[in-house]
Protein 1
Amino acid sequence: MSDTPDGTVVVRIGEVEAYKGSDDPASHAFRGRTDRNGSMFEAPGTLYVYRSYGVHWCANVAAGPAGTGWGILFRGGEVSDGKSLAQRRRGRLDGLTNGPGKLTQALGIVGDDNGTDLLAPESTIRLEPGPGPELVMATPRIGISKGTERPWRFVAATGLTPAG
DNA sequence: ACTAAGATTACCT
DNA sequence: GGTAATCTTAGTA
């Protein structure tokens, strides 16, 4: 209910995927640093934004020591504040953050935001700590053809396991 | 220089 | 279930 008046969208991230740089054939950083993936090689906390399928923006955070190219892709979450702004950005009322491109659009992140320090208090785009999930489910990552044997997609859950 | 393949989404039948 | 949209990198010539 408490939409922030200054136009802020807050999302509780509930689904991520890990990409381990040169050790991970599914990673954009597997073959080393390029113009596109450079920010993933910066200090941990640096935002890496890439154009997906030539159409959507997807957002990651550099998550390893500088130079490693390790990163975390934000895939989904729940809007906890600023829902009306997220709806306006998405152009619809539902399905606001259930996918990497959708989540990024709901947060208003675009290519120009690539390289932002998500841990700096003055950044307009920030990553902040919050209460952890009750349960984390690990599954293979979505939409990749290599490295599928690694269960590096992590989904927040509560209550009982899928098996019951 | 040219072609193929993507860490996806929305809209069509 | 199928497909268009259309940017970047890698592989081939």
Note: DSSP finds two helices and six strands in chain A.
Protein 2
Amino acid sequence: MAYWLFKSEPGTWSWTQQKKKGAKGEPWDGVRNYQAANNMKAMKRGDKGFFYHSGKERLIVGIVEVIGEYRPDITDEKGIFGLVDVKAVKDVPNPVTLSAVKANTKLNEMVLVNNTRLSVQPVRGSEWSRICKMGGVTE
DNA sequence: GCCAACGTTGGC
DNA sequence: GCCAACGTTGGC
């Protein structure tokens, strides 16, 4: 199984909103970046991802699961980009802040640290379990 | 509010 | 196909 990180401005789409969608999940639309789209193409049903709040908060607040693989994003009028469907799985009990990630030398190769502008990112297995531990998530 | 990083666009 | 200009994201 692969791991990912989904970034969102809480003012646009928040973890609270995602959770309200429950098991039905929500299409992760609006991505207009090839690198991010390629990451979504690589996703498989059952893959897990962190839900990250960018902007003022800058922390990992939840865990999502990919429930629908890459398909066209109908909100893209050019018909170029696609999306995946994700559902909320659980909260991260102690949200992991960006500064905590940066402060951890074991995590300094994370895309979150090195490519701040990429909105859909791959996460290594080792990084995943370390952050889960930091966040008090029981895997 | 500013600015660095970076992706995209468009002229040549 | 290159590269300058521009726009956007996101951290600070």
Note: Helices of chain A lie at 15-20, 34-41, 98-103, 111-114, 125-135.
Protein 3
Amino acid sequence: MPELPEVETIRRDLAPQLEGRRICAVRVARPDILLGTAGPAAFVPRIEGSCIRAVGRRAKWLLFLLDRGVLVTQLRMTGRFAVGPGPLPPISEFRHVAAEFDLDDGRTLFYDDVRRLGGFQLLSHDEWRREEQRFGPEPLAADFRARELAAAIRHGRLPVKNALMDQSRLAGVGNIYASEALHAARIDPTRPAEGLTDDEIRRLHRSLRRILRDSLDSSGTTFSSYRAVNGRSGSFQDLLKVYAKEGTACPRCRSEIRRIVQSGRSTFYCPGCQV
DNA sequence: CTTGTACCCTGACCGC
DNA sequence: TGCGGTCAGGGTACAA
């Protein structure tokens, strides 16, 4: 379940291995990972021969900035990458390889996706610029202050947890970090976003940024399926306070952590200290 | 405009 | 041992 810290971890793993490389050949074993209208017949020749100038990230999307456009990648739930020296995936866990990209240094980039909810789309630089406008601000950007958080989420009767996860309001936050940030800020996840006080916004801003940074320092949360590149695990799951901790004691007030469902997603919170 | 729901997909897990 | 049902949640399409 890659959110901002997980996708950024993958970007940092991939960038030094891929930047400056040319893609010589592409194989798409599972065409349904090609998002949008393009099938392999249109996709493959547009990628082959292109050079990877940089590996980027916006929200939870990983970006391969090519000389001919932007290869946009969504990992959704189970998408993973590995880079190997030969024609076979370097780790045995890659049993659902959906696409392979041969590089000009003899190595191959493998994309594996059990559920195939993720995938690729090649956009022109102009198309990506327009697409990118749909996202809210990046919460780890240097100029993202409490004022920017308030402008992004403090409107509407939507519960604050859903507001945090709405990618058009705020980029990169998903189910795990929304629950964790609200617990750290002592805010009830069901509260309408428009009702947060200035002090609560300041607490949420600090908590959210600290948790995203700490998770990045831990290479993300390997809870079920997420891995960094080549199967590497993150360790932030060891530092979670409420996510998937239903029935355990809140580390702050010892009340019992509860699980509720908001918009079909699990929310974990402490009824004792989140008000 | 906002808000809610169904759907895509497979593997892990549970109860019988 | 098998087997059906449920759940996981990212984003998107569509309805109200």
Note: The mean pLDDT of chain A is 93.
